[in-house]
Specification:
Length: 197
Amino acid sequence: MTDMMSVVTDETTGTDVNDKPASTRPSRLAERRAIRAASPARAAVSELAESGALDGLFAKIDGGELDLTGDGGFVNELLKASLERGLAVELTDHLGYEKGAPDAAAFPNARNGTTPKTLATQAADVDLAVPRDRDGTFSPRLVPKGVRRRERAKDKGKPSNERKAAPRLVEGLVVTNRKQALAQLAIAYPDRINPHL
């Protein structure tokens, strides 16, 4: 029986890559590291580090003045600021004018404060101030209405039986009423619960 592997050639030498011993081929881990090293985020962090912009931050972390992770940690607050800025941009696009614009009165819909929302993420729970409009027609795409947990990028598109279970259910989240319990179960097991609601 013949091997059904496709032939992949090295552009520089024209030889079959599969003929190389496994030890000389890059591992998947090495490939992932190379992709991360070439990412725009890595370049931005390197640029900030080289400019000295992160020195003060690192000094506060080393001195114990600033927690990096957990509730109230730097990563949590950075995520909060990023999401709230994105939500504000979405509302501006929805309304058609910038916040504080002099011609805002000419538009039929207007900003109407914010609504608090807690979003469970891998880093920690993030307390967001989600902007709203007066007509109630704004439906954010970044953090959709009714969503309390951000799905991991690795789990998107996977069948629910292949996803990791919601950590709060695994840890035994205490719920005070039936609605909360059903909401948590519907998030964790949408194909099993939603048909019965």
